[in-house]
Amino acid sequence: MQYGGPDGELGASLRYLSQRFTMPLPELKGTLTDIGTEELGHLEMIGAIVYQLTKNLTEDEIKKAGFEDYFVDHTTGIYPQAAAGFPYTAASMQVKGDAITDLHEDMAADGTTVQVQHL
């Protein structure tokens, strides 16, 4: 579950919602809009889960879980960062304007192996 990492839900939603503009067919634009909106829903779910799991942690539990550095900066706030600790950056996603290239990048980020046919 990544909230804000390079393959996280924030990047996924922004990737699909940005790439939709250069899709050559209205159906593709609509599909990417739907997927991007769904990814925003995943972002909300993960944020809610993480908050519920961390909101009542004691100082000892925070230390034991290795969350000290995070909690110094964010306490129980949900902050978009990768599991490695670096904050979300749009540099971790790509939008090229070429439908095939963008769809391949989407599949790589989502870990899917669907073959893209010529548009």
Please tell me about this protein's structure.
It is built from 5 helices and no strands. With 119 residues, the chain is mainly alpha-helical. The chain has one domain: Ferritin, CATH 1.20.1260. Helix 1 runs antiparallel to helix 2 and helix 1 runs antiparallel to helix 5. It starts with 8 loop residues before the first helix and ends in a 9-residue tail after the last helix. The model has no long low-confidence stretch (mean pLDDT 85).
Topology record:
Layout lengths: L8 H11 L6 H29 L4 H7 L2 H7 L24 H12 L9
Helix pairs in contact: 1-2, 1-5
Task: Give a short summary of the structure.
The chain has 119 residues and is mostly helical. The protein has helices at 9-19, 26-54, 59-65, 68-74, 99-110. The protein has 5 helices and no strands.
Core attributes:
mainly alpha; 55% helix; Ferritin; single chain; 119 residues
Give me the Rg, rounded.
Answer: 17 Å
- Strand content bin: under 5%
How many beta-strand runs? Answer: 0
The CATH homologous superfamily is called: Ferritin, core subunit, four-helix bundle
Low-confidence stretches at least 5 residues in length (pLDDT < 50)?
none
| The first-level CATH class name | Mainly Alpha
H-E order:
HHHHH
Number of domains: 1
Question: End-to-end distance, in Å?
Answer: 32 Å
